[in-house]
Design brief:
binds ligand G3I, TIM Barrel, disordered C terminus, 9 strands, eight-stranded parallel barrel, alpha/beta
Length: about 400
């Protein structure tokens, strides 16, 4: 065989390989960049805090890969579950601070902006609270809970989700246990108690679907009511459980502006972007919604072996446009927190349909940064470039 023929054969084999590789689905980690030039926290340091909700094995530092990512990338933490009422006070007046103490100590060790989640929420309550029907008894329980928990971490937890998910989708007040027993004023009561317990902490109203115009109007009413009564409220937490298709940037932007016009800061407290098909009416994060009839339905769980490149790109572009909007309004935004560290740990693998494989975060199941991570970081590089260009002029 002549040299030229040999070279031609090698070239056509290479061409064949290249063409066919394009057709195959790439695994998530195979397509990741090998070098991470910088981190989210350092890149966005001048814009807002960037963080993640962490789970029990991260709090206990048994998840070494998770801990490495948290340490490298984030400067704020939220406990995903371990500070909810049912875990902190499972029976009346009997508190268990094992994980909460560990969580706060970890935050301090890592020099984080430490968030407390959450004080007054109708979900994940201990059983005993469901049998409290007397308003004076309910008020005492709320006072005891807020003062004990916030008092313990006074000066060490920097922001609290004081009241969580108190609104219906139309902006009216949810008929929660607290609302039924104490009336609408329970929200003011909770914020007053929180303000007494730690006046330095930032006090947040936190909810999902806060981009919706009707719900936005409900938040505006709620915050104004607190302000008119001189009660401390420092921020609105937009949970941000979103999808590839929605909500629209315009709706999100209108909410950022409306909340900021109240004189409070906006936080994106639970950001994730589902990559999976959802039962059509599901939006937001109503934890009681569960679709058992779809469990095991593979058409609702199409990316069990990894995201195809086309969807990976969609996810990256969606995150890019979301962060472009955040940067545009960085003067109004204090913090952006992802709801989980990596895809494997996301609650969206179990909601609204159990047992699926979702890919909603910036780090894949091996904790490798995804294309979305690279595109989000690239925004800051562009930002710096345009900053230098404008300052040179
Ligand atoms: O701790 C038990 C464990 O002992 C048991 O073996 C296991 C069996 O299912 O359940 C474990 O509890 C689960 C808990 O997460 C801890 O993993 C609960 O079943 C499960 O319902 C619970 O889900 C959490 C959900 O809140 C509950 O309301 C999610 O992890 C958590 O991400 C989610 O977070 C909420 C925010 O607090 C508020 N905003 C919406 C957001 C998403 O729903």
């Amino acid at each position: 065989m002549t040299k030229i023929r040999k070279m031609a054969l090698v070239l056509s084999a290479l061409l064949f390989l290249l063409t066919n590789c394009k057709e195959t689905k790439s695994t998530e980690s195979a397509q990741e960049p090998t070098k991470v030039p910088t981190s989210l926290k350092s890149s966005f340091a001048k814009s807002f805090y960037l963080g993640a909700a962490i789970n029990e094995s991260q709090i206990m530092e048994t998840d070494a890969k998770g801990i490495a990512v948290i340490n490298r990338e984030f400067n704020t933490l939220t406990p995903e579950n371990n500070m909810k009422w049912m875990y902190l006070q499972p029976t009346p007046n009997s508190f268990d601070f094992t994980f909460a103490d560990k969580y706060v100590a970890l935050g301090e060790k890592m020099d984080m902006f430490v968030v407390g989640h959450t004080l007054v929420w109708h979900s994940q309550l201990p059983n005993f609270m469901h049998s409290v029907k007397d308003s004076a008894a309910m008020a005492t329980h709320i006072k005891n809970h807020i003062h004990t928990v916030m008092g313990r971490y006074k000066g060490r937890i920097h922001a609290w989700d004081v009241v969580n998910e108190a609104l219906n989708e139309d902006g009216s007040l949810r008929q929660s246990l607290f609302q039924q027993v104490l009336g609408d004023d329970y929200i003011e009561y909770a914020f007053q108690l929180a303000s007494q317990a730690d006046p330095e902490a930032k006090l947040i109203y936190n909810d999902y679907n806060l981009w919706k115009p009707e719900k936005r109007a409900g938040v505006v009413r709620l915050v104004k009511r607190l302000q008119e009564k001189g009660i401390q409220v420092d921020g609105v937490g937009m949970q941000a459980h979103w999808s590839l298709e929605g909500p629209s940037l315009e709706d999100i932007e209108n909410s950022i502006i409306a909340y900021s016009e109240l004189g409070v800061k906006v936080q994106f407290t639970e950001l994730d972007v589902t990559a999976l098909p959802n039962p059509w009416e599901v939006e937001g994060a109503e934890v009681s919604q569960n679709y058992e009839e779809y469990e095991g339905d593979l058409s609702m769980d199409p990316y069990r072996t990894g995201l195809p490149d086309s969807v990976q790109t969609k996810l990256a572009n969606r995150y890019q446009e979301i962060f472009e909007l955040f940067l545009k309004h960085q003067d109004k935004i204090d913090r952006v927190t992802f709801w989980g560290v990596n895809d494997g740990g996301s609650w969206l693998n179990g909601w609204p349909i159990k047992g699926r494989t979702n890919h909603p975060l910036l780090f894949d199941r091996n904790f490798a940064p995804k294309k979305a991570y690279t595109q989000v970081l690239a925004l800051k590089k562009k930002d710096k470039l345009s900053f230098h260009q404008t300052t040179k002029k």
